[in-house]
Every structure is written in C-alpha cells, then in structure tokens.
Specification:
Layout: E1 4-8, E2 17-20, H1 25-30, E3 40-47, H2 52-64, E4 68-74, E5 79-84, H3 91-100, E6 104-107, E7 122-129, H4 134-146, E8 150-156, E9 161-166, H5 173-182, E10 186-192, E11 196-203, H6 208-220, E12 224-230, E13 235-240, H7 247-257, E14 263-266, H8 269-303, H9 309-315, E15 318-319, E16 322-323, H10 324-340, H11 342-353, H12 359-384, H13 392-416, H14 418-426, E17 430-436, E18 442-449, E19 458-461, E20 470-475, E21 478-481, H15 483-486, E22 492-494, E23 499-500, E24 505-506, E25 511-517, H16 523-536, H17 542-572, H18 587-601, H19 604-624, E26 627-629, H20 632-638, E27 641-647, H21 648-652, E28 658-664, H22 670-681, H23 687-701, H24 709-723, E29 728-733, E30 737-742, E31 745-750, H25 752-757, H26 764-775, E32 779-785, E33 788-796, H27 803-812, E34 816-820, H28 825-835, E35 839-841, H29 846-857, E36 862-867, H30 873-878, E37 881-885, H31 890-895, E38 898-900, H32 906-940, H33 945-948, H34 954-973, H35 983-986
Parallel strand pairs: 27-34, 27-36, 34-35, 36-37, 37-38
Antiparallel strand pairs: 1-2, 3-5, 3-6, 4-5, 7-9, 7-10, 8-9, 11-13, 11-14, 12-13, 15-16, 17-18, 17-19, 19-25, 20-23, 20-25, 21-22, 21-24, 26-38, 28-33, 29-30, 30-31, 31-32, 32-33
Helix pairs in contact: 8-10, 8-13, 10-12, 10-13, 11-12, 12-13, 12-18, 13-34, 14-16, 16-19, 17-18, 17-19, 18-32, 18-34, 19-32, 19-34, 20-32, 22-23, 26-28, 32-34
Length: 992
C-alpha cells in the first residue's frame, strides 16, 4: 500500500513520521482492481472521438458489453477507464466493443509509475525446507498465522510448500521468510498473486534473430508471467510478479544475456501519451497544410482571377467540354474533399452506423452538398452550354477552416493537462545507485533509470538534484525544497532518519537515502493519479450538455432542411424579389447556400468541451496549490457550501498536545502518579496518551539522555521497556478514555463521564481546579485508581496560527463555521471563542459527528467537513464535501473529497474559492456555447438577409464553427491564471 509522509507527530525529535495513503479506497471507487468483488480495471486509448456525442457512443457500447460494470470516457484525454468482471469479459472484448462503435482502441499497459495499488490481500507461495512431520507443519502454520497482516496460512508437508494470504501494507514477503527461518526452517518465495505490467522499449532489435534472442532471455526469467514483443516498434510488453523479480533485474538480465546487444528502457506512460498527442497534432497540421495549399488556388481562381483579364480569359478556355478554370477547381477540391477530408467521412460513417451523430456528420453533410451540387452544375454547364455558378471553394474552405480549428483545439486541449505534465517532470530521469556487496560494503556508484529504483536501494543525491524516490536519509545533512509537492515554501532541514519525498529538490549537502516507496507508492505518483482520476470524472452539470449534444445534430439537420424549404418555397411562390437570388442564378442554389451555412455553422463541440476542459484545468491548478480534488462532482458541490464543520483536535489546533499541569489529590508521590498513568496510557494510540507518556518520561529522565538523535531513540526504548509497569486487560473506551489493571487494581484514565460512571467521587477541590482549566481551553484528564480519585492532568493543544483568520474569512464568504468535538463543553466553548466560532457542538461521539451533519442537511444545506482523524471518517463520508487535512490519517483521506496537502486551514478557503471560480467559468462557457449557436444559426439561415442583404457564405460559417470550440477551450484556460485568495482581501483589510 502506497503511503504519503508529510508531517511529524508531536512529542519530540525522535518521533516517526505519520504515514498517509492518499488514495486507498478511492481507487476502488474510481475503478481500480477490487479484489473482493473480483473486478478488473483497464485504461484504453480511444482514437477518433471529436465531441461529447462520441464519448456517449463509446460509453454506451462499453456499458452494453457483457461483464462491464462501469465505463468512464474522457474526450480530452482520449481515454476510457473500464471496470469489468474478468470472468465474463476480457481485454480483447473491451477493445472490440469500442472498435465496433467506430473508434480505434488500444489497451494501455499498466505502469509502475502511474497506477495506484489498492490495499488488498496477496497470496504468496513459499518453499519451506526442513519439515519432517506433521508437528513441523503445525509449528510453521501456527507461526505464520500469528504474524500481523497474515490472513491465512496453509502448509503442505508432501510438497514442502506453504501458501500464505497476507496484507502487503502490514507485512512483507521478506518478513514472512524471516519468521519461517527464525523457527528453524529454510524458506524462499516462489511466486505471489501480485503482478505488474510494463512496456519496455528495446534498442538493438534489428533482425528476427534478435527477437528470438530476446524471447529466449525472457523465457528464462523467473517471475515473468507473460510477454509480447512488438518488432515493428521495438517494444516488449511484460507482465511480471514484483514479489519474485524486480524490474531492474529484468532490464539487467536482458542486457547481460545479450552481451549488451540489447538494451531495455522503461517507457513512461505520460511521455508516451504526450508523444501520441504530439503525433495527433502533427497529423492534423499535415492535413491542414495540404488542405490550405490546395484551397488557396481554388480561392484565387474564384475570387481574384476574374478581375485579371489575361488570367480570366485563359481560365475560360475549354479543355474538351469543360472550362479550364472549372476543371482545375474540380481536381483540386476533389483531393481536399476525399483525401484530406477522408477522416470526416470515416468518423461520420462510424457514428451513423451506431445510431449516433456528431460534428463530423454536419461537416460531411455541408461539404458533400456543396461538392455534389458543384459537380452537377459543372456537368450541366459542360453539356448544355449554360454555366450556372459553382461553389467548389465552399467545401474546400469549410474543410480547411475546420481542420484549422481542430489543430488549434488540439493545441489548446494539450494546455489543459499541463499540471499533469509538470508533476511528471518533477520526477528525475536517473538515480545514483550505491552498490554494496552482501555484507554491506561499498563497491561503487552506478547511474540507473529512476524507474528501476527498488525499495531498499541506497541512493546518492547530489546538491541541486532531485530525490528519485520516497525514503529516509541514512547519511548526510542538507535542506530540501518540498514546495513542488507539499506547497511549503521554506526549505526543510534533513538529517539522518529524516523522511524525504521523491521529486523534491536537494539544495545544499550530499545525501544518502534509502528508498522505501517507489513507482506507484510515492507521494508524487499518488498525487498524479489523484489528479488524473479527477480529470476523468464528469461533473453533474455536464449531463445536461451531453444530453443536448446527443440531440443537437438531428435538430440542426432538421433546421437546415426547414431553412432550405422555407427559402425555396418563398422563392418559387415569388414571396421575395428575384433580384435576391439573381447572383446565384436561381432560388434552388440560393436556398441551398443558406441550408449549407446552417449545417456548417452549428457547433456541438463547444457544448461538450465547456465542462471537462474547465474541470481539467481546475484540478491541475488545485494540485499546484496543494489542494487535491477528487473529481468534478466534488468541485460542483463545494461551490454551494453553506456550512463548514471543523473538528477541533488536529484541525483547528496543531495536534501537538502537551501536558501543562499534573496535580495529585491523594497521598501519592507525583513521580509515582505519573509512572502509573504513563504505564496505563502506553498501550493507547490517542494523541493525548502520547503527550502524557512523553511528559512522564521527561519528568523522570530529563538530563539523563545522550545528545545524539539515534542514541536518544535507542536509550528511550530501553528505558521504556524497563521503567513502565505491567498492564493487564487494557481496553480503550471511545469518547471516554481507557481502563486497565496494574498491580491487580483497576485504573481509569479519561474524562468526567468515565470516572462518574464507575462510581468514583471527584473531590470539590479537584472539581474547581478542573473547571478553571477547562475555562482556559485546557483538557482535563482525570485518574482513578483502586476505586478512588487520585489526580488529574491538564493538557493543552495550541491553536493553528491561521485558524481565527480563516474562520473570519469563511464568514465573509457567506459560509457558516461550526465546531464539533468530543471534548467537554467548557474547553470547546473556550477554543471556539478564541477562533470566533459561535456554533459549537461538544461532547460528540465519533458517530455523532455524522448525525450533526445530517441535521444540518435536512433543510437542503450543503455541508463541508474538515477533519484529520480516524474518528472523522464517518463525518467526512456523510458530508456533501469532505476535506481531509494532508497530515491526517489515511482513513480520513480516503473518505474525503478534497485533500489539503499542506495541512494549512487557509486551503479550505482556497478549495471553496477555486470551485466557485471554476463553475463561474463553466457557466460562462455554456453561455457562450449556447449563445453562439442561438445567434449563429438564425444568421446563417438568413434571418438578417431581408434587412441587410448580406448572406453568410458557407465557408465563413465553417470558420465561425471552427473558432467557437477553440474559444471555449481558451476560456477554460483562463483558469490557469487563478491565484489563491489573500486573506487580507477576503477579510477586506487594508494593509498600509
């Protein structure tokens, strides 16, 4: 399971970093492999989609396929994410479904960089040597089943094999092997159910013999499940078991076994996608150039040459029955219509074959009508001697302008994914591997591809270079700029045992780090995956646009036919002067030009691009500002937030609880009292328990510890094991405290409710002391031992510096802040007063937080919840918008819609403001797209012609259509200029 290490817990320099999984269950929700349900997810590259009608056709084709549970198609990314039952459908069936819908499809290989691993159980097969009887089997099974993270273990004596189901996030294969060996048996992993798929580019594949050599090498590699060699592209796709063989080992084996004739390199899926985008842009540009070169002569022959007598007379000369000028236009336009414009015919055919319509259908109808009429007019003139006007330039110019618009659109859409590209570029291309022998002696350095770094590798990071993987420092000191990942602008000091994040910049000293998480496990990869998944999602508002797009083309074709009939019948009945149609020779051609203009000027693409482009840009911008959004639906809900509920501990406060007071109300010595309480709390994972333990430890051993960090940690562990008292029957009581037995007597440590429920009387002196503490925003911990009250401990958790200003800022934005906490009323009221929150809900159990949210939602209000702890996850899930503080627990982050990576409350305002700005932009996009079609179609139909006498030529209508979708994309790109709201602006404070 991939984790994210961001901020240290409270309690001193020797604290471990808290681990946070950014994705977790969200992967399953978004379509990752769900082991329990047996579902499989694939990403498919889909070529040929032009508008939301195309995405709808692909989604419909996939959803209709047997075994497919869910399909999400992104027009901008040209991708489909498909979740299906592998027992009912295969990858080939998914490709076939898309191709049957009229589009090209290619299953994308999973990447060790881009694909998040969901938390799941692996099944590993181990060889176990040294077993002689059933007693050995029982012994090994018993040992395995007691290991943390092991779900099931079965050992067979006859085959000397053991099959173990285990959680890889809790225990590794090496730890299982070590446990078996510690029991006196030999052990080794043979294979596991885990598998990775990766695409390697192989240089040196020149002949069929080279392919045979590569086949022979790959067949011998243990742990390689399957492979396929693409000789044409010099690529090999491999599926391997990472528990048995590492990617670096595969690459090294290919090079060694081929005597360096063949060299393999891991293909980065994002660079490959960028290459595909570049190819599409290059292909569109080539078609545009060809169309332009052929259309310019046609335009000159039609518009310019008639005004040059010598040229005009030459073009009017006959070649057989045809005039030379007309014949040249026919030849040039035929190439444009059927060679350059082939893509429109193919796409239109695919769409119509499956009962859908798109922009290509409109382009084909408009250009074909113009072309066919012109050919008929040309042939009629050749054989009758009467030459009606021909409009070859119309179809040529329409295709040219549409291609120009498509090219600009491809370039503009590429800009919307700049955030992903920037994040990908953060990862370094290479890493310096410190090579060591089996005894750990240093042998030298080797530069390797960063994608080949494996967990446990020792890496050297030079000043000014990027850290290749997540891990921790094993030698050296330096400062690291982590702003590109966490948004924290101040360089962070790093020394031995300090955690480091892959992709961040080492500024000064040389560091040796040990990699702990690579590939999909790194923070950077999780952020990339989260942003990518969010960009694939559809906001609810887009459903309206998809519906309009699905009926748009039939409506436009109907309007075009009505336009033709109206003008033609009016002309035939003499309802308008003959002079109006004199320029086009007759009312049929006059009416046809209006009809073609209507078909060509209408643009369904602008509607389809209005939402996804804005969501794509917004999620990328949010990631750059440390706000990770889990999709367009979360963005849409956040714009209407009316209540923001804050948890107190770790959200409004720093989460660094410290003991300020310890008072004994019995004859017990203070040191003995602290030892007793610390022993009881040592088994608890609550932050307050840790604060009590640290306070008691420093009370007893202050000044008696060595100065070196590593020595302090080691010495502290030794002291704790010897100093604390033995505890029996420990139990945690949620929302109350803990109870256990020490020296045969029951001890209670917790709040007032826990003490009174157990029939222990609190002395008046202690009660007054407790009330005074609570009124000063301190939490009182009461202690009872052997059914008698013995003392209390006062704990304070300082507020975050920005808490009060953020609360005031939310009020200015029209959002009502609420504080919900499990703490007592007096402490809660004191903290709320300090930050400026009037609405307080105290002494609320974890499940009760969700009830508070539901009570606020009854009147239809949109409620956001900001939290960081496990106890906040039900509330985060119940809220309309869940916001998890980035330093919180992985469960809280899984339940949230937003992840505030920087652990800064200011980002709550950023998240709400970004969603408001995004949907304001989306509404403008829809307004422009709808207004364009509402205004442009009547103009193209000739609504203004009776008053102005100006008719819009079809080629000009094509130009307008081409630029309409480009304008919507460019409108969305304005979101890239988004800047976080300054609190001084939100609060309307004038800074002098």
């Amino acid at each position: 399971m991939a984790h994210l290490q961001l901020t240290a817990l409270a309690g001193g320099a020797d604290d471990e970093m808290e681990e946070v999984a950014l994705l977790g269950s969200y992967d399953v929700e978004a379509g990752a492999v769900d082991e329990e349900a047996g579902m499989r997810r694939v990403q498919v590259r889909v070529a040929g989609m032009t508008c939301s009608a195309c995405t709808g056709a692909v989604e419909a084709a996939l959803s209709a396929r047997r075994g497919v549970r869910r399909a999400a198609v992104s027009l901008l990314q040209n991708r489909a994410h498909v979740v299906f039952d592998p027992e009912l459908a295969k990858d080939e069936d998914i490709v076939e479904a898309i191709e049957d819908a009229g589009f090209e499809a290619e299953i994308l290989p999973d990447s060790t960089v881009s694909q998040p691993k969901s938390q799941k159980t692996l099944s590993g097969q181990f060889r176990i040597g040294g077993m002689t009887c059933a007693a050995c089997v029982n012994s090994v099974e018993g040992i395995l089943q007691k290991l943390p993270g092991v779900k099931r273990a079965v050992v067979a004596l006859a085959t000397s094999l053991g099959e173990v189901e285990y959680d890889p996030s809790a225990i590794s294969k090496d730890e299982i092997v070590q446990a078996i060996e510690d029991a006196g048996f030999d052990a080794a992993l043979l294979q596991s159910s885990e598998q990775d798929k990766v695409l390697l580019s192989v240089s040196g594949l020149h002949t069929e013999g080279d392919v045979d050599v590569l086949h022979d090498i790959l067949k011998k590699i243990e742990g390689l499940r399957q492979f396929g060699v693409n000789f044409a592209n010099s690529e090999v796709e491999i599926v391997f078991d990472p528990e048995v063989v590492g990617l670096r080992q595969i690459v090294d084996t290919i090079e060694m076994e081929s005597s360096d004739r063949l060299k393999a390199h891991v293909q980065n899926p994002y660079l490959r996608a960028a290459s595909n985008d570049a190819q599409e842009a290059s292909k569109t540009l080539h078609l545009l150039r060809t169309s332009l070169l052929l259309s310019i002569p046609v335009f000159f022959i039609r518009m310019v040459c008639p005004h040059i007598p010598l040229v005009s007379s030459s073009l009017l000369m006959h070649f057989g029955p045809f005039r030379i000028g007309d014949l040249l236009k026919w030849i040039l336009v035929s190439v444009v219509q059927f060679v350059v414009g082939k893509r429109f015919y193919v796409a239109a055919y695919r769409a119509l074959r499956h009962g859908s319509t798109n922009m290509d259908v409109l382009v084909v109808i408009g250009t074909t009508a113009s072309y066919v009429y012109s050919v008929c007019a040309l042939l009629y003139g050749a054989f009758s001697g009467f030459h009606p006007p021909i409009y070859f330039e119309t179809s040529a110019m329409i295709i040219t302008f549409v291609l120009f618009g498509k090219y600009l659109e491809v370039l503009a859409k590429g800009k919307t994914s700049d955030a992903i590209k920037k994040l990908v570029e953060l990862a370094p291309a290479t890493a310096l591997l410190l090579m060591k022998d089996k005894e750990g002696k240093y042998l030298g350095e080797k530069e390797i591809d960063a994608s080949l770094v494996q967990p446990g590798d020792a890496l050297k990071v030079l000043p000014g270079s990027k850290i290749p993987a997540d891990g921790f420092v094993i030698w050296g000191t330096s400062h690291v700029n982590e702003s590109m990942v966490t948004g924290e602008s101040v360089p962070i000091s790093k020394e031995i045992s300090s955690p480091v994040i892959g992709g961040t910049m080492n500024l000064h000293g040389v560091l040796h780090i040990q990699a702990t998480k690579v590939g999909s496990g790194t923070v950077l990869s999780q952020i990339i995956s989260l942003v990518e998944i969010a960009q694939m999602s559809k906001a609810p508002i887009q459903k309206f646009a998809d519906y309009v797009a699905s009926i748009f083309v039939p409506i436009v074709i109907t309007l075009s036919l009505l336009t033709f009939l109206a003008w033609f019948l009016c002309g035939w009945l003499g309802a308008y002067p003959n002079s109006w149609s004199a320029e086009t020779s007759n009312c049929f051609v006059f009416s046809l030009m209006f009809s073609i203009s209507v078909v060509v000027i209408a643009c369904p693409c602008a509607l389809g691009l209005a939402t996804p482009t804005a969501v794509m840009v917004a999620t990328g911008v949010g990631a750059n500002h440390g706000v990770l959004v889990k999709g367009g639906d979360a963005l849409e809900r956040a714009q209407n937030v009316q209540y923001v509920i804050f948890d107190k501990t770790g959200t409004l406060t720093q989460g660094k609880a410290t003991v300020t007071t310890a008072k004994v109300f019995s004859g017990m010595d203070l040191g003995e009292f602290l030892t007793l309480v610390a022993s009881a709390e040592a088994s608890s994972e609550h932050p307050l328990a840790k604060a009590i333990l640290d306070h008691a430890f420093h009370f007893h051993f202050f000044g008696k510890l060595p100065s070196e960090k590593e020595s302090i940690k080691k010495r502290k562990e030794e002291i704790l094991s010897q100093w604390l008292l033995d505890v029996a029957d420990f139990s945690a009581l949620p929302g109350k405290g803990i109870q256990c037995w020490i020296n045969g007597k029951k001890i209670l440590v917790g709040n007032r409710a826990l003490i009174t429920e157990n029939g222990v009387n609190i002395p008046d002196e202690a009660e007054h002391f407790l009330v005074d503490m609570e009124l000063s925003a301190k939490t009182g911990i009461l202690v009872a031992y052997d059914d008698g009250f013995i003392g209390l401990i006062g704990i304070t958790d300082p507020l975050k510096r920005e808490a009060a200003v953020v609360v005031q800022g939310l009020k200015k934005m029209g959002v009502h802040p609420v504080m919900v906490t499990g703490d007592n009323w007096r402490t809660a009221q004191a903290v709320a007063k300090e930050v400026g929150i009037e609405d307080v809900r105290a002494e609320v159990m974890p499940a009760g937080k969700a009830d508070v949210i539901r009570s606020l939602q009854k009147d239809g209000s949109v409620v956001a919840m900001v939290g960081d702890g496990i106890n906040d996850s039900p509330a985060l899930a119940a809220a309309d918008v869940g916001m998890a503080i980035g330093a919180g627990t992985d469960i809280a982050i899984e339940a949230a819609d937003y992840v505030l990576v920087r652990n800064n409350l200011e980002d709550v305002i950023t998240a709400i403001d970004l969603s408001r700005k995004t949907f304001s932009r989306i509404r403008w996009n829809y307004f422009f797209a709808m207004a364009y079609n509402v205004v442009a179609i009547p103009i193209a139909a000739g609504a203004l012609f009776p008053f102005t006498g100006v008719q819009m030529p079809p080629w000009l209508a094509g130009a307008c259509m081409a630029f309409s979708s480009v304008s919507v994309v460019c409108s969305s790109l304005l979101l890239r200029r988004y800047t976080k709201p300054r609190l001084t602006t939100v609060l309307q404070i004038t800074v002098e």
